[in-house]
Amino acid sequence: MAPPFRADQVGSLLRPKSLVEARRRALLPRDNLRAGSRAGESQGEDKGEDGVKHENDIPTGHAQVQNTGDADADPETLLKREQDHAIKAVVSDQLSRGILPITTGEYERSIFYGNFFESLAGFEMRYTPLEHFRAGFPTNRPLLEWGVKGRDAGFPTANPVRHAKSAYLDDWLFLRSLLPADRWGDCKMTVPPPGWWHVQLKEPFDKDLYGSDEALLGDLSAALRREIRTLYDAGLRVVQVDDPNLSFFCDEEWIATCKAENVDLDRLLELYIKSHTDAVAHLPPDLTVGIHICRGNFPNGVGLASGSYERIAQKIFTETPYSVFYLEFDSPRAGDFTPLKYLPREKAVVLGVVTTKSAEMESLEALKDRVYQAADVIAEGQGGGRTREDALRDNLAVSPQCGFASDHSEGGVGMTRETMWEKLDLVKRLAEEIWPGWSTR
What we know:
By secondary structure, the chain is an alpha/beta fold. The chain has one domain (17-440): TIM Barrel. The protein contains 11 helices and 10 strands. It is globular and about 55 Å long. GO terms for molecular function: 5-methyltetrahydropteroyltriglutamate-homocysteine S-methyltransferase activity; zinc ion binding.
């Protein structure tokens, strides 16, 4: 099945400095940078009351928000105003540049997974010392280097955890209000995976509250499925689930740590594959739901994991109902294209071959060669006389390997908004070279 966009983008775009500063000032608990502070602690560069540097204390280095003349206004009101203005501008930029799919740039969030878990009934975010997270978990490695002692994490407080209100409906309604109805199909929204917090924590739930991992993940999957269906009912037709945690099952350091602690990685992977399957089961056939599996993208191009998709590719491709897989292939840490040999004919891969981790521009010809290499691997793996041309037609698209700003503070090394647009234009030109005329469909 051909993917919906031959030139795609993963989700987040660099925020204007005024939006970054407005969010910093708003001190929204649900949107704390990388979910890092205790309730009631101040944001910014100062240390907390205990004198310890917490995750949100990492300075952003951005300029102050412009004086709007209403300094007495509520910070959340000012944030919403700045946010709406920035989204309108970035949608206009995408339209004028012919960039697809059209997104909000995730400007309504401080981090890519933000707002969903906070919206659930029977679930809360609370400050958690890092020692309560799984040792060696890739997300925590840079935090430890930065001197972070803890971060917010999500825990169930009732059984069942359930979908009480939509986390993203208002965001989608605002985006679609900026477009004619015949362009809604050119849009995409992203959502987090059901097991986002479960995989990171040593004790992800109170045993008196939930009797098993399966029970909790089942409720979280049901909540995510309802969220996706809510967006579909309001006219959205392309959804991307972001789950970099799955790539950590390919990371040798994380694997070694789990083995040392007698963690059954095979069982964990089965749990999360089932949670994904349950989350996207029984959705309408005209809804495209894909999954993005990168290796993390912290500010300044900091990666979180490395290792080939070989360990998980066959199971992910064949045991989940996703029709599109957004995969990272911009650097050696991702391995080569060999795992694509497992891709079924009816599914598609969006090759993340343009990096967002640095401002260095790739060669168009070199990128074309890499896409052709991937097509050859797919065709050979599918057998039955399949050719490169068959794989290009049915199974491939291109994109950056990740968003440009997974949290609201900064992007890759040397990345500017101008360079960001140049990167997206490069993706567009690459797609036009390989699939001429695709964007005029």
